[in-house]
Amino acid sequence: MRTYLVTGGAGFIGSNYIHYMFKKYGDEIRIINVDALTYAGNPANLKDIENRDNYTFIKADITDRAAIEKIFAENDIDRVVHFAAESHVDRSIEDPEIFVRTNVLGTQIMLNCAKKAWENEDGSFKEGKKFLHVSTDEVYGSLSDPEDYFYETTPYDPHSPYSASKASSDFIVKAYMDTYKFPANITNCSNNYGPYQFPEKLIPLMINNALNGRKLPVYGDGKNVRDWLYVEDHAKGIDLVQEKGRLFETYNIGGHNEKQNIEIVNLVIETLLELLPEDDERRKNVGKHLITYVTDRKGHDRRYAIAPDKIRAEIGWEPETMFAEGIKKTIKWYLENEEWMKNVTSGDYMKYYEEMYKDR
């Protein structure tokens, strides 16, 4: 039985990946999920699989070297899928240090522990071991030409503390691959959306606020463009890179769903009105009158767009979920899981929300 060590598996993308892997492989694999359970890590994301015999949850911080070494010492880990990261740009602007600590130091510790566990005496590595580092398209900076796209060869040009910390972690992984021939891959993905996303991110934030009649804060003129990838499509891509990807290579995973932020907000409003029953009291809350333009984010990149040509040509992956379908699936999930939303929008999140938007 192949054993996967998934870091950050209680977060948005990590929990969706774990669900996908059990759906695909069932009892053929074992998953160990390591998560520090910071504000965005939610054990409820995996409530339906927590009692599986081939699933183990360990609460640990990836910067805790002793804890990570212990996991490798006590388990024969075949694959590492490294999601764990601080990932919200606004938070990185407020507190860059935690991003450097988690994203840079945490990645280096994960690499070193895997290297120590997998390395043979002659410096080669045990057969079948692989480390996959999950990164972001934000490391490439911003596209000014509407005809341009991010490729794996695009020079890095990060503009926020978040993207700089992810770029740094990518370079550390590259250094291990180049220096030690460490068996790894890097994936750089576009904006994900779907179930279990913490509601500081654009789509769940707009869904939750609209349902409750709260303002829908839109940065600047709302015309910043992002490429949107349905989270299960991303999970499929990660699995395929692990199975078919060439070692030491980087693969961009993009959704071919470019949208302006204001388009996303309008689509959320329209889809909510389409899906909410006529007699649902919340319908009266939902409307474009809630849209509120706020002071633009510092260093706000104008456009991201990934060209997933390499992963399509080499591995056969391409996005299956177009945005019109994906946004309906996503909003339906949030409407059917109101208790989940209520639980995560209390405490730290609400304090953060007030701090970030009260003066805008």
Can you give a write-up of this model?
It is a single chain. The protein is α/β, with parallel strands linked by helices. The protein has a domain at 2-193 and 229-254 and 303-320: 3-Layer(aba) Sandwich (Rossmann fold), CATH 3.40.50.720. 42% of the residues lie in helices and 16% in strands. It has helices at 12-25, 65-74, 89-94, 96-118, 161-180, 202-211, 231-244, 261-275, 309-315, 323-336, 338-344, 348-357, and strands at 2-7, 29-35, 55-59, 79-82, 130-136, 184-189, 191-193, 216-219, 225-230, 250-253, 258-260, 291-294. The strands form 3 sheets. It has a 7-stranded parallel β-sheet with strand order 3-2-1-4-5-6-10, with helices on both faces. Strands 7-9-11 form a 3-stranded mixed β-sheet. The protein has a two-stranded parallel ribbon with strand order 8-12. Helix 5 links the parallel strand 5 (130-136) and strand 6. Helix 2 (65-74) packs parallel to helix 4 (96-118) and helix 6 packs across helix 8 (261-275). The radius of gyration is 20 Å and the shape is globular. The mean pLDDT is 93.
